[in-house]
């Protein structure tokens, strides 16, 4: 994967977040025009929340308690009004395709920013489409058959001291182990080598790098 692919995907994620926020803001305007008191409550909550932040910085804990009490009252009032007009609190929040990363592409694990699975999948899909691999639904390990590989042991013919069938069985086991441990940073990469025209099967050798 090159940086261009990642930059393009992150730009796509940014646009999704912008669109999600715009959509919910437009919806809020529509709701607040119908129920002005709801906006009044929301404005009070926002003002008190800002005041609370300033008080936290000044360590004024007695005033913070008063604000928390007022905030709780306003939130209960808001919840009751929303229920009365049959509006969910989720409706007033941006809708993101990925609830894990909120369409940022990254999550926080142990105070470290790591790539979200949704972004990993998109990268995989792009790279997969570039690979010219066939139909993965039919061409996979579950449909893999050993019957196409000879049991004959012939080092001169195959360049191996074992039969092609035993060789491909080992390759399959190593490949499956690589896939099952793909997210393990200590797992080594795989390199498939072989002469041109052999389709990397009978005479294929597999190395961990």
Q: Explain this structure to me?
A:
Helix 1 crosses helix 2 (36-58) and helix 2 packs antiparallel against helix 3. The chain has helices spanning 3-34, 36-58, 61-84, 117-130, 155-158, 164-180; strands at residues 106-109, 112-115, 190-193, 205-208. It starts with a helix and ends with a strand. Among the domains are: 16-92; 143-208, no CATH class. By secondary structure, it is mainly α.
List the helices and strands and how they pair.
Layout: H1 3-34, H2 36-58, H3 61-84, E1 106-109, E2 112-115, H4 117-130, H5 155-158, H6 164-180, E3 190-193, E4 205-208
Antiparallel strand pairs: 1-2, 3-4
Helix pairs in contact: 1-2, 2-3
Key structural traits:
single chain; 209 residues; mainly alpha; 55% helix; 8% strand; elongated
A few lines on this structure:
With 209 residues, this protein is mainly alpha-helical.
Task: Determine the N-to-C terminus distance.
Answer: 18 Å
Report the portion of residues in β strands: 5-15%
What do the pLDDT scores average to?
A: 85
Which oligomeric form is depicted?
single chain
Strands side by side in the biggest sheet: 1-2
| Unreliable sequence segments | 201-209
- Helical/strand content category: mainly alpha
User: Helix count, per DSSP?
Assistant: 6
**N-to-C SSE series?**
HHHEEHHHEE
